[in-house]
Amino acid sequence: MAVLAVPALLDLPQPPATTATATTTTTTAAAAAATSDILGCPHVHLFTGVANTAALLPLLRAPPSPLGPPSATYLDAARLLSPFQLAVAVAKARLNVLAGRMRTRSLQAEILLALSPDTSIADAFARFGLSSATSAILVVSLDPNDDVRLSGCCEVLARLKHHIQGTHVADSLDLAALRDMDAISKV
């Protein structure tokens, strides 16, 4: 398991405090607590040699279920140039959530859209999402509960290993061997 950490990008500013009214006062700490439930700590898992991507696609399109794959962003690892590109996309998506400027319905889709050079979510899914030919999957899961980060991440990883038939590459985000430069140059 790799924790995606680019401190300058992932340490987000707190939402601004609102003005006090006669009945209620919203503090910066309360606003930050409300948004931490959806932001979480990003964890990145790389799977190579995946054999069941075609069978995985319908499960990812279905509504989330406790028995299905965890709710996360599933990316084609061959389409990413570097882990830094992913860190910037995660930071941009999280900032859009904090600023109330989300263009999609979920944080997972917002990460995909942040990777794309244009504003079409369909193009973002086609460029960076999974296809039946994908053999290397990069999964970005966000753990909203910082108190049980390690146990929550282990549970997510166990569910991922159950559904993805491939090799989990622990503590490595070396994408150089997986890159498809022809596909990247078309983006």
Radius of gyration: 17 Å
Sum up the overall morphology in one term.
globular
Low-confidence regions: 5-36
Please outline the major beta sheet. 5 strands, antiparallel
Helical amount: 40-55%
| Structure summary, number of beta strands | 5
Output the structural class.
alpha+beta
Percentage of residues in strands: 5-15%
List the helices and strands and how they pair.
Blueprint: E1 2-3, H1 7-10, H2 28-39, E2 41-48, H3 53-61, E3 73-76, H4 83-99, H5 107-115, H6 121-128, E4 137-143, H7 149-163, E5 167-169, H8 181-186
Helix pairs in contact: 4-5, 5-6
Commentary on this structure:
It contains eight helices and five strands, in the order βααβαβαααβαβα. Helix content is 43%, strand content 13%. Residues 5-36 have low confidence and may be disordered. α4 (83-99) packs across α5 (107-115) and α5 (107-115) crosses α6. The protein has helices spanning 7-10, 28-39, 53-61, 83-99, 107-115, 121-128, 149-163, 181-186, and strands spanning 2-3, 41-48, 73-76, 137-143, 167-169. Strands 1, 2, 3, 4 and 5 form a five-stranded antiparallel beta sheet that branches. It is α+β, with helices and mostly antiparallel strands and 187 residues long.
